Amino acid sequence: MQPKSLLISLLSASCVGAQSLTSVLQGNSDLSTLTSTLQKFPSLLQSLGSASNITILAPTNEAFNALFATPAGMAAQNDDGLLQAVLQYHVINGTYPASSIPSSGAFVPTLLTNSSYTNVTGGQRVEGISQNGNVTFFSGGKATSNVTQADVKFDGGIIHVINAVLTVPANITSTAQASGLSTLASALTQTNLLNTVNVLPDITVFAPTNQAFAAINSTIAMLSTQQLASVLEYHVINGTVAYSTTLMDGETVPTLNGATVKITLANGGVKVNQATVTIADVLVANGVVHVIDG
After folding, report:
1. Which domain holds residue 137?
2. Domain edge (last residue) among 121, 140, 162
3. Which is one Gene Ontology cellular component term of this protein (predicted)?
């Protein structure tokens, strides 16, 4: 074979092996809803098709059907901005094969940077965790999406097929109410801090449960509004999204009221001063919430 013919053969083989994003999606009948939804946003589809080093979390048709049957899903169908944000939240910056997702969890940035839906520097995160050979992604409100087919390759990276649509993280107000933290939400409203914690970028909130507030109800009743505001500000870290994987044993972290809290890691758990984190890493629009028992 002549050198020129050999080169042509190699190029041809390369072209045959190439798999565009569109061809991969269209080749999987269980991803037809994702495909048709992406086609509503030609510029997004084009940018994804030409992108490199990305990971796409691809919900199945059944996953979309489940979403569209809910009030949130119906709202997304009638709001192109929200629907596009949902799609962008399913695209991770970087190529993450299933084998690279650690058992301790990893918070990876997505293409969701629209300030109408997120205020996290570098893009809203999604948490990936591997347990017993299975990979799960956690999104807003600790919603879970399990990988049912991993490492589907295409030109720009890989696709993981998931069984539930990711939930775009909501603001602190909605998250507190949905998580049963109504006393915290009421206290933030009473002290005019609710809007502050909703809009501050890159925050961490240590959120006491209703039971924790009830345990010190007599003390709270004696506080002025300003004193209560200072107590609540002591539960907020401003300018740092402190996911559980980034917390360090013994570190002291400044809070919104100027004082510091001490982080202790022991026996697989996390303490903030003397309070124990009971639910870690609840993703919100502008950061993360850790629910504490005190």
Report:
1. 17-162
2. 162
3. fungal-type vacuole membrane
Question: Kind of pairing, strands 134-138 and 125-131?
Answer: antiparallel
Q: Are residues 156 and 243 in the same domain?
A: no
For the whole model, what pTM was predicted?
A: 0.91
pLDDT above 90 (res 268):
no
Report the pLDDT averaged over residues 154-159: 96
Domain membership flag for residue 6: no
Instruction: State the CATH number of the domain containing residue 278.
Output: 2.30.180.10
CA 62 to CA 164: how far, in whole Å?
8
**Using CA atoms, how far apart are residues 38 and 87, in angstroms rounded to an integer?**
8
The pair phi, psi for residue 204, each rounded to 5°, is -125, 130
What one-letter code names the amino acid at 189? T
Q: Are 128 and 211 part of one and the same domain? A: no
